[in-house]
Amino acid sequence: MSSVLVLGGGFTGLLAAAAASPHAREVTVLERDVFPEGPQPRRGQPQARHPHFLAPGGVLGLEQLLPGATHRLLAAGANRIGVGADLLFRPAAGGWLDRQDTGRYGISCTRQLLDHVVRTMVRERGGVTFRPECDVVSLLGDGRAVRGVRVREQRPGATEVFEADLVIDATGRGSQAGQWLDQLGIVVPAAEIVDSGHAYATRVYRARPGAESGFPLILIQADGRSGSPGGNATLLPVEDGQWLVAIGGTRGMSMPASNDDFLEFACERVPHPLIGELLAEAEPLSDTMTSRSTCNRRYRFDRVRAWPRGLVVAGDAASAMNPVYGQGLSVAARSANVLRSGFAARGVDPAAAARLQQSICRAAQDPWQMATSQDRQFRGTKGRGASVLARVQLRYGERVFQAATTRPAVAAVVSEVMFLVRPALAMGHPAVIAGALLGPRRPARSEPPLTAWERGFVTGGRVA
What we know:
seven-stranded mixed sheet; FAD/NAD(P)-binding domain; alpha+beta; 22% strand
């Protein structure tokens, strides 16, 4: 049996290790950081402070890799979010979607809890060794084959070599894979960039008394159709009776400069003030944390003419989408399931690396298309403009979302595509096409469809 090196011990790396361990002689995860003992933050993962939603597509993928993971997460305090039933969604096209039980669900919790549970399950499975404080600096090999990595240890100047039959790069947005391949004489096409200049800020709140469990996830998208900067907001119920709240905006919109500005932004700069009104009497538990790491960036490793044996690049290291669309965790699960299927069919075969890489890039195509088509609507977005076909698809998508606000059959398909349960081709379903042609049955809801219990937590009870 072959040996595998996984670079990076985050969510993608953990799932890659889970995919490889039944088929490899040994799997070693190299992580430059130190793993915490429990669900605590770690220095090398600053994005973990912000909301992460494991969408239904990600839940299905996680269960394929680690059966029982959903149960473990819920037992640890995560929230089960029924898509449609427990999700209040105002898309960029405007108007709130009606609520309905689609039978699909996602998981909402902090990133720290998610990684802790998954890491614990990978350790329990066995066959995986974790090596912290290992900073990978280069690949070993040549233009034909990769046979390991060189690592910088914590001691100044000290390096160590790790050899393996297969190297999986799961180092995320900061991946140096393109640079490493260039050092081996392999020409990689320049990264594709679509950058809307999105920025966002996050605060942790204590849930309003009585709303510690069973409260819906709220998602309000930015509207870029006017040409002006758009604001968005997300309220994510997480463990320990807390709400993780993110507010943001596209290029040209000023982010909150202080904690006091956070609530004002949520009330005044977002298309609907619902989240701001829920926070008006909620207790903040953290200061404001900001991020501008929202650029869509992908490397077309599938177009490299002579991909080397023994190397695969997965997850955000290959294709990183704007995190405000909540796709990253599901794309990581897709990448790992490509590996799982490949290893089950052929074992850990270094010669299959090019085929695996092409499949991983294809698995990210739909999420890439959805995220970039939204971001290209905003004024000042940088990157190659949308093609004629992409513009037609965007206009069709707008009509579909407008129809989805009042047509449950359309909404059910849209949610499954949006949350990566079904491929984008499902947008051609006859019910969806009919909805796009006929339009909404009635004017879209201007106010969110809250239950009487939920309405009681809105300041002043203003929202109907």
